[in-house]
Amino acid sequence: MAGLQAGAPTPRSITVHGASRVLEVGFSDGANFRIPFELLRIYSPSAEVQGHGPGQEVLQTGKRNVSLVELEPVGNYAVKPVFSDGHESGIYSWDLLYELGSKEAELWAAYATRLAEAGIDRDAPMPLGGGHGCASH
């Protein structure tokens, strides 16, 4: 998970747009991002998605129509989304939200590459037990 960097931009506004499935975040440096819920979900910083180390990432699929059910504040440094597919273990720091917004095109391209390499369709359902198998989550 991206940490909080000293002097890094912080959110001035966060708006959930349910119909268009985007999280709009306006930052203190003037940047404004509309981050799709699907992108938030497939790049969740949780161990369930990222694993516990390099090479343990779990490729997320079938998340195109995921919604945000809730968005909980975490201190003064992050938010914790609750997604319609039940995923709720990712904590998104301000730095991570900024990265997801500013690198959206690169992240979509990397996701498309991972899907192609795995021979999996973006809309394929996740296999049952599709987590990383960590009993602590």
Question: Could you list some keywords that capture this structure?
Answer:
4 helices; disordered C terminus; 25% helix; three-stranded antiparallel β-sheet
Protein architecture, described:
This protein has 137 residues and is of the alpha+beta class. The protein has a single domain, classed as 2-Layer Sandwich (NE0471 N-terminal domain-like), CATH 3.30.2020.30. It has 4 helices and 6 strands. The strands form 2 sheets. It has a 3-stranded antiparallel β-sheet. A 3-stranded antiparallel β-sheet has the order 4-5-6. A hairpin with a 3-residue loop joins strand 4 and strand 5. The longest helix is centred in the last third of the chain and has 15 residues. The radius of gyration is 15 Å and the shape is globular. The C terminus is likely disordered.
Could you please say which CATH topology applies here? NE0471 N-terminal domain-like
Biggest sheet overview: 3 strands, antiparallel
Number of domains: 1
Name the CATH architecture: 2-Layer Sandwich
End-to-end gap: 16 Å
Q: What amount of the residues lies in strands?
A: 15-25%
Radius of gyration: 15 Å
What class would the helix/strand composition place it in? Answer: alpha+beta
Order of helices and strands: EEEHHEEEHH
Number of strand segments: 6
